[in-house]
Design goal:
The structure is a single chain. This protein is mainly alpha-helical. It has one domain. It is built from 14 helices and four strands. Strands 1-2-4-3 form a four-stranded mixed beta sheet, with helices on both faces. Helix 7 runs antiparallel to helix 8 and helix 12 packs across helix 14. The chain starts with a helix and ends with a helix.
Length: about 325
């Protein structure tokens, strides 16, 4: 409920932002005849609708997905089935991606159309409890409807960028000096709103990750298992070359963690792995629970721009759920 409320408030804020933006444009262009920008809104909405409709097909192809049955992978299928029952969800389709990057994600348009995918790299990396914790996180995304929320929110930066691009080139080549000045003012305003709305979308994405972590614990996983899974994902991704990581560039916002940030995260994560075992046990989480997390200026900026929370802050939240 709190997740949906916060995301609904975020959508309200974004709506107010775009309403104010369009109101200012109308005031600037009144009497100038420059009203063709109004077609940007329906165009952006149509593009977003098209992306929403074909999204699952694009994911299937780009991530090299193969759907499985209970006979193909009994353990994985049974885990998803048990968690879906606990979460009161229709059974999602289960699939495996051939990517070496260890990760997982949920996609689909509705609960009935939902799919849960794990990469081959993830299955080779985690034990059963850790895998269950990751699957619980992904099923929580489905339960919370947050993929649809992020899709809706993403329309606004798209609209603003389209207006910026069109107006900027119009200010260079279009009409009289006065008209070019008006178009340039609109372009700069659109660029500003694009930057603000992109930050708000990233904030919404970070919120949903925290709540999906919490959802995994509510479905019966232990905080230490999800924390260890995140640790192992970061450590393994940090070993991969840039070419391999680039294969999933377009999907990283939907991953359990951002694999492109793994090399920066791993140094902080190793500091809380006190016995250097490669896992995070209950005692290590208890000690982290009482620690004050202080991010440096670079880490704060990186988190502000990222679709995923800072990993130490995220694991500290898991530590606070440890009984």
């Amino acid at each position: 409920m709190w997740l949906q409320l916060r995301l609904a408030l975020l959508i309200g804020l974004m709506t107010a932002l775009i309403y104010g933006f369009l109101t200012i444009i109308v005031a600037i262009t009144q009497g100038t005849g420059q009203t063709f920008y109004l077609i940007m809104l329906p165009i952006a909405l149509l593009i977003a609708l098209f992306q929403y409709l074909i999204g699952p097909s694009v994911v299937e192809r780009s991530m090299k997905v193969t759907y499985i049955t209970a006979q193909d992978s009994p353990k994985l299928y049974r885990m998803v089935e048990d968690l879906a029952t606990k979460a009161d969800l229709p059974m999602p389709r289960v699939c495996i991606s051939k990517l070496k990057i260890p990760n997982a994600f949920a996609f689909g348009r509705t609960k009935k159309d939902s799919r849960v995918c794990v990469t081959k790299g993830l299955l080779d990396l985690l034990d059963d409890k850790e895998l269950k914790a990751v699957l619980g996180h992904e099923l929580s995304h489905i339960k919370h409807h947050d993929v649809a929320f992020i899709t809706i929110l993403s329309v606004i930066p798209l609209l603003c960028y389209m207006i910026y691009y069109t107006m900027f080139w119009g200010s260079i080549f279009g009409g009289s000096r006065d008209n070019r000045a008006v178009l340039l003012a609109i372009a700069l305003l659109a660029l500003l709103v694009y930057a603000i709305s992109s930050l708000l979308v990233a904030y919404g994405s970070r919120i949903r990750e925290y709540y999906a972590d919490k959802g995994s614990i509510e479905l019966g996983s232990q905080p230490k298992d999800l924390a260890t899974a995140l640790y192992k994902l970061s450590f393994s991704s940090a070993q991969l070359n840039k070419k391999t990581l680039k294969q999933a560039e377009g999907m990283k916002a939907f991953f359990l963690n951002d694999p492109t940030r793994a090399r920066e995260e791993i140094y902080d994560l190793q500091d809380i792995d006190l016995d250097m075992s490669g896992t995070l046990d209950s005692d290590e989480l208890y000690q982290l629970k009482d620690k004050k997390i202080q991010l440096g200026p670079t880490d704060k900026i990186m988190e502000l721009l990222s679709t995923h929370p800072n990993m130490i802050k995220r694991i500290k939240q898991l530590a606070e759920m440890q009984e």
